[in-house]
Every structure is written in structure tokens, then in C-alpha cells.
Specification:
about 290 residues; alpha/beta; 5-stranded mixed β-sheet; 5 strands
């Protein structure tokens, strides 16, 4: 397997506004303790994009995990947005569509996309506003999301659901605007082949790292330094060393960066059995779901 020397995890947010307390970026390398990038700083999405662009330009040997979905379900219906003639056929075109319809929104927000008459039909919105093409119940799921539910590796939520604390649809759409800008500069697994050198992006789900560190399902959020250090030790990592309270966004990023370092050299995360070339082009995959 390809060996990386640096590992980073981005805990992400799709909330409105320029700066987001829900964004945290952590880094781990060698045997050093994981660290937060710009601790105490309130990140903007533009700053995360600039940091990623710098990593790409410097060709740093880094595996970078982002905590949002790179795609919507496609395989179940043969389309991201059935009944919409603008529905794209692959990931880069999906990102381009989101960008085109959201180009006037500041701070990489996505309100204009969700307000588009054809797009909004597919989503569950706030205050009981449910699009007529939103699939009742859990909503449409990608193959990786159905697989992780069936195998109890994780309990993901449909990206077409925009309601509730567990929803990741807005964050994923905002992230797609960044992926659109990084296309051709930073490869994304499994859409792109793993490069021999330089950086690589992967989609992550921080709950997978938490379970690998021994945290029970449904109680994966860490908000104190002592608990975080216990979890890090289970991943073979040195402690972060914080005392007292820590935000769950920071702990998610720190724990996931350490987890990436621990598992990236294993074969299993890179070769999940259900993954096909067609899925790689249309739906992608969550690293660590096997």
C-alpha cells in the first residue's frame, strides 16, 4: 500500500455565515501527538480551501479526510435527481451543478441551489417542507451508506435530509463547492487513482474513528481532554494533552487524524468489496467502511 507521512482530518460545517465554530482541522504525523491547526481560531470555509490549495501546491505527502459526503445517491435510481433534465452523470459534474446554482451565495453557502425549483423537490427541508420527490422514511441512501447500516459499521443519514442534528446534506453541498474548485489539483479517492506521491483526499465519517477507538455507538462525541486521550491511546497515539473541556468538533478532528494514521497502511480500507468503478465515478465511498 501507498505510505503517507502526514495525516489530516477536517470536521466540517454547512451552516450559514462566514466563520464556523463547527470547523476544526487536525494533523498527525510520525509518532507525534495529534495537533489542531490554528487552535482557538474560528475557521471560514474559504480558509480551509486556501489551506487545501497550499497542500496541493506544495505536493505534501498527506492523506486528508473531510467529514462530508462527496455525492448523493445515484445507483438506486440511475440518477442523482430523477425527473430533472439537468441531473449530472458523475461526481465532477454534480459539483459543477451545485457551484453553478450557488455561485451568487457568499461563504460557500448553498441556499440558491436548495431554492431551485427542480432541486428542492428532492429534499426534506425545515418546518415540515418536504419535496414531493423526497423518498419517505430515511430518504435515499448511497450504496456505502446502505452497506454501513447493514453491517452496523455506522448509522448514516440520507444527504437528501436537511433536518435534525444528524443531517449532513447542507455540509455536503457546501463541501461540493470546495471539491469543484480543487478538481485537477487534489485527487479524491476512489474517483481518482491513488497517486505515487503527494496529497490525497478521502471522505471520512468521524463516527467510524470513534468506534475504532472503543466509543459506543450513539455516544461517540468527546467533550473532555481525558476521555480524548484514552481514545487516542486505543489507536496507538500519544495523548493530545488537553485538560478540562474540549469541543466535540476539535476532538472529532484530532481522533480521526490519529485514526487515519493508524489504518492508512492497511489494505482493507482501500479495497471494500462493494466498491465498483461505476460507484467510484458516481457515488464515491467513505474511507474505512469495508
Amino acid at each position: 500500500m501507498r505510505r503517507f507521512t502526514h495525516f489530516a482530518a477536517i470536521d466540517w460545517s454547512g451552516a450559514r455565515g462566514e466563520r464556523q465554530r463547527g470547523i476544526a482541522v487536525a494533523h498527525a504525523s510520525g509518532s507525534a501527538r495529534p495537533a489542531l491547526l490554528r487552535p482557538g481560531h474560528i475557521w471560514s470555509r474559504a480558509e480551509v480551501l486556501a489551506w487545501l490549495a497550499d497542500i496541493a501546491a506544495s505536493e505534501t505527502d498527506m492523506l486528508i479526510g473531510f467529514d462530508f459526503s462527496a455525492a448523493f445517491a445515484f445507483a438506486d435510481c440511475g440518477a442523482y435527481f430523477p425527473a430533472w433534465d439537468a441531473s449530472p452523470a458523475a461526481l465532477p459534474a454534480l459539483w459543477a451543478l451545485v457551484e453553478r446554482l450557488s455561485a451568487s451565495d457568499p461563504h460557500y453557502e448553498i441556499g440558491s441551489f436548495l431554492a431551485h425549483p427542480a432541486a428542492r423537490r428532492h429534499f426534506r427541508h425545515a418546518r415540515g417542507d418536504v419535496g414531493d420527490l423526497f423518498v419517505p422514511g430515511t430518504g435515499r441512501l448511497r450504496v456505502v451508506e446502505r452497506h454501513q447500516r447493514d453491517t452496523r459499521q455506522a448509522a448514516s443519514v440520507s444527504n437528501f435530509n436537511l433536518v435534525g442534528a444528524a443531517q449532513v446534506g447542507k455540509a455536503s453541498l457546501a463541501g461540493m463547492r470546495l471539491l469543484h474548485r480543487l478538481r485537477g489539483r487534489l485527487p479524491l479517492w476512489p474517483l481518482d487513482p491513488v497517486p505515487a506521491t503527494g496529497p490525497l483526499l478521502v471522505e471520512i465519517y468521524t463516527g467510524v474513528a470513534a468506534r475504532a477507538a472503543g466509543l459506543p455507538a450513539g455516544r461517540s462525541k468527546i467533550r473532555d481532554g481525558g476521555t480524548l486521550d484514552i481514545a487516542l491511546a486505543r489507536l496507538g497515539s500519544r495523548p493530545f494533552g488537553a485538560t478540562g473541556a474540549i469541543s466535540d468538533h476539535a476532538s472529532d478532528a484530532l481522533l480521526t487524524a490519529a485514526w487515519l494514521r493508524a489504518v492508512a497502511s492497511d489494505v482493507a480500507p482501500w479495497s471494500p468489496a462493494p466498491l465498483t468503478p461505476a460507484l467510484a465515478r458516481t457515488e464515491g465511498w467513505t474511507f474505512g467502511i469495508i
